[in-house]
Amino acid sequence: MDQMTIHILGCGSATPSLRHLPACQVVEYRGRLMMVDCGEGAQLSMRRAGLQMHRLTDIFISHLHGDHCLGLPGLLSTLSLQQTGGTLTVHTFPDGCRMFRQMVDFFAPRLSYDLRFNEISPKGGETLLDTPALTVTTFPLRHRVPCVGFRFDEKPKERHLRGDAANFHGIPPYLRRAIKQGADFTKPDGTVIPNELLTLPPDPSLSYAYCSDTLYFPALADAVRDVTLLYHEATYADDNLSKAAERFHSTASQAAMIARAASAGTLLLGHFSKAYNNENRHLAEARAIFPSTLLANEGLSLSVR
Amino acid sequence: MDQMTIHILGCGSATPSLRHLPACQVVEYRGRLMMVDCGEGAQLSMRRAGLQMHRLTDIFISHLHGDHCLGLPGLLSTLSLQQTGGTLTVHTFPDGCRMFRQMVDFFAPRLSYDLRFNEISPKGGETLLDTPALTVTTFPLRHRVPCVGFRFDEKPKERHLRGDAANFHGIPPYLRRAIKQGADFTKPDGTVIPNELLTLPPDPSLSYAYCSDTLYFPALADAVRDVTLLYHEATYADDNLSKAAERFHSTASQAAMIARAASAGTLLLGHFSKAYNNENRHLAEARAIFPSTLLANEGLSLSVR
Q1: What residues are paired with B137 via a beta bridge?
Q2: Model confidence, pTM
Q3: How distant, in Å, are the alpha carbons of A245, B63, B235, B250, B272 from that of B13?
Q4: How far apart are CA B247 and CA B170, in angstroms?
Q5: B141 Cα to chain A: minimum distance (Å)
Q6: Tens digits of residue pLDDT in B193-221
Q7: Is residue A70 within 8 Å of A44, Cβ to Cβ?
Q8: Interhelix angle for B252-261 vs B280-287, to 10°?
Q9: B67 part of the active site
Q10: ipTM of the assembly?
Q11: Model confidence pLDDT, tens digit, residues A142-158
């Protein structure tokens, strides 16, 4: 199983169309499911993608526009019909916590699971999740309403112990963990074997950043620096450059400029306006700037690697 | 064009499945679109069915369970992006008016149309719409929460003036309207020609009744007496007779008993539980009691005749 997979459930913009659903995706990490934005229809899209709702642990909402969060009341109500137990945390701005809590209280007064609301700040810089293997942090975006992006970072992994060297130097099993974490090995005779002779570098830590809706601003590259996969909105192509700025959205080229400046591994474009019949133009314009670009689409599951 | 058409956009029950969407339908009457219940995804289903949202004049909500109304915030917000103008009235219980007004105020603070909320009573017996050609009235259902059904009735139509008789008796044009409405004709010499010699009976008035979620209770037949088309929930088949009663739902047989007792023209079954892989059993059990029974399905457009 891949360690980190992004499931695209919706990658359209404000007005739903027959081609794209409103914003919603699921980050699957070692069997844990975390939803990022929750547009109308999210519960049905999960079912369609074969993702079990009761495995959701967190829902991160980037901002309180309807196309990014109106799937919440239905999803949270239906989950309650499933008698799931467990805990689910919705991370959103205080207004959203208040409003969706009220909706859930009305539509699902007897919840079968522990629903928590975590009030987040539009300023970014918060750590929303910190497990032994992964952190989820926020960074500010620039949209018409307060808006944050989310960054998923695997923590540094252990180095690989070289079996031949471990045997040659007679490393006892109880010391192996420490050596994988970087310690040198001191032999009974006092000789110190440096770590680099005993281990190989760790697997790279994977990272994913999600930029839902934002005006282009170059400093965004700092927030998403070196991510393995960058999802960036590309509501428009360059034919609507001025409209993008007016509406605090980006073009595909601008998303590519951010990816290039951030030294991202791969760029995934989404949040497409319904004004386009396809996204060939977005793709071509972005690839001219950042070749490793892909288009999001409903049903796409992409391994982060 | 048919005068009255029912478009089924969703005919599943509480938990959405891959087979059925939550409750939603559109009654089209002489170009006017009226929505009945508005489950999550309603706006997308309208688009899929080729029904233009800006033609909606009324949305009738039978009760405040999520699967009957959680499509409202998205639909009302999207409508605002379309710069439609016009007036749309949402008819629902006071709690729903309050809650959805608040959602719309938050998600679409600058509406481009006149959105009205009409507080209805769970007791039924109200006239929600009264146009020159049509009335929409409510009647009480028995569910776990307050719930009403809706009845659409065409007003009596004009009689057909017989052209041959009109010519023979020399009826002047300015009297024709009165005669179509039932008046006799008095000739210049004082002879009275009775209306029945001058006209043929009017076309029958069409009617449609919608019973969203209800326990079986025989008195319901009085409320839906003589309707041309009866939509009645059939969440379960007879294999779940006791579960139906526990949950204040009906079986297909019970729906058929109501249709028979009411002398309905045709029965349309819906609100199917996701526990069934198909509704063959519902159909067979209902037809054994009321032969003129059909199954609802997403995408079905049915003329009332």
Answers
A1: B127, B151
A2: 0.92
A3: 43, 13, 7, 12, 5
A4: 65
A5: 19
A6: 999 999 999 999 999 999 999 999 999 99
A7: no
A8: 30
A9: yes
A10: 0.89
A11: 999 999 999 999 999 99
